[in-house]
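so ive been stuck on this for like two days lol. basically i have the seq below and the ligand is zinc ion, smiles is in there too. i just want the complex predicted, nothing fancy, no docking runs or whatever. if the output looks off dont worry ill sanity check it later, just need somthing to start from for the group meeting slides
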Amino acid sequence: MKHEEHEFGQSLPSPACGRGWLDEVEPGEGPHPTLADARATFSLKREKDSRPAALRRGLVCATQYARRAGSLALDLVFPPACLLCRRAVAGHGALCAACWGDIAFIERPFCERLGTPFDRDLGGAGLISLEASADPPVFGRARAVARYDGDKARGLARRLKYYDRLELAEPLGRWMARAGADLLSSADVLVPVPLHRLRLFARRFNQSAALARVVARESAVPVEALALERVKPTPPQVGLTRAQRAANMQGAFRVREDMAITIAGKNIVLVDDVLTSGATVNAAARTLLRAGAARVDVLVFARVVTGA
Ligand SMILES: [Zn+2]
């Protein structure tokens, strides 16, 4: 995650201090303006500012010292802590080595359709698992960062979803952009799996939309958060069989009429936090395909692996 420490502020102006203080802005301090915003703000100030150059440089320098001091103060008040266990770490928005080591990241070889890892390398690219050929999903391909059956991955997903830890969307979304690179390279639009409005009201934010926004920023694939609507309030799926889950999700989604043109003919990546039986993303994919989508792939943070 080293590159994340250089994510912000690389091109921000630091003309007078001789040291790139803003280069050292820590991630995780809260919402940052984009580089474009920062550049626009700076050039705006420069155009309008008629004060002598030396004074301007001094002000910029003072501002940078203040920001640096603010950053250090923030680290003193809120020292960087592991996202899961709160143990001290080097930078904000990171996991400690122990938690990182406990996440079951999914890596190749895996099933090209379901993205589920194979126990051993069968020596061929593009292999499909028995599960995928016996019961092909509605979506094209799925990719996940980690297995949901590990405590740590489940802990991250649950903290984001149920404990208002919205800041987790940032690292999780970045990992998803990497895990889904092969899907994203040919994607036209990202569509987060929506919540029904009653559940959105109760939970206050849609974790899938939060993840999709980060993936969109990382991959430069636009996100259409309102393309899909959840029109049926579905009860929690826990304890239901696979068939019951699928039946439960029938008619749950609809493409908004004014979004039909955004969907038709497009390669879509559905974004969700967790994939369990696949009933939700299959229902959402079916709705998008019926609306004319060319292809629907799925990108999640964690997925249940039942055997591949
Ligand atoms: Zn930890």
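The domain at 104-303 is CATH 3.40.50.2020 (Rossmann fold). The radius of gyration is 22 Å.
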